[in-house]
Specification:
The protein is α+β, with helices and mostly antiparallel strands and 179 residues long. It contains seven helices and six strands, in the order H-E-H-H-E-E-E-E-E-H-H-H-H. The longest helix is centred in the C-terminal third of the chain and has 34 residues, at 134-167. It starts with a helix and ends with a helix.
Length: 179
């Protein structure tokens, strides 16, 4: 019974792990050519490829990425905070294809680091302590929840754009080769 449970647990964990990666076909390209194309994409999409590349091997590249967004909400007065979305981008490279995953995403905002999966339910506790009037607190919570929802929409748009761009690398490479 214990072996069956462990086998099922192992299969489930493999399924979850495999879902995190997306494979992109890159026909007629060697591992080295794909590596070069990925590094060119990184150089074009990040401020400094040298600063963001954490690991650079022929079959694997790891990038520490970030993007900036603004969050506005009202606590009596309109308040705008600039935040950052930080993440790891992993590329595994083989002949004719690569796979990528985006992991360890978190939001750095108002001096705090909040894992992306925890952000929606997050409440700025320090602001709640200063609000004694229940109606003000209720409205502030709603304004903050609306701002978090908007921020999550912005973060989703950033990540979706990143994924579309990564998946389009073979097409862009072909265009630059056909000049």
């Amino acid at each position: 019974m214990k072996r069956i449970f462990l086998a099922l647990l192992f299969m489930v964990s493999l399924g979850v792990y495999a879902q995190d990666f997306k494979v992109v076909e890159f026909p007629d390209k060697s591992q080295k050519e794909i590596n070069t194309a990925l590094k060119a994409w990184i150089a074009q999409n990040f401020k400094s490829a040298k600063d963001v590349i954490q690991l650079d091997e022929e079959n694997k590249i790891i990038v520490k990425g970030n993007d900036v967004f603004k969050q506005s909400y009202k606590y009596g007065e309109l308040r705008t905070i600039t935040g950052r979305l930080l993440f790891m981008l992993n590329f595994d490279i083989k002949d004719n294809k690569y796979r990528y995953s985006i992991s360890d995403a978190y939001i750095k905002i108002d001096g705090l680091d909040i894992p992306l999966q925890d952000y929606e339910g997050y409440v700025l506790a320090k602001n709640e302590k200063t609000m004694k009037d229940w109606m003000i607190l209720k409205k502030a919570r709603q304004n903050e929840a609306d701002a978090r929802s908007k921020t999550l929409d912005d973060v989703d748009a950033i990540l979706d754009g990143l994924e579309r761009s990564i998946e389009n690398i073979p097409n862009e490479t072909k265009k630059s080769e056909d000049w």
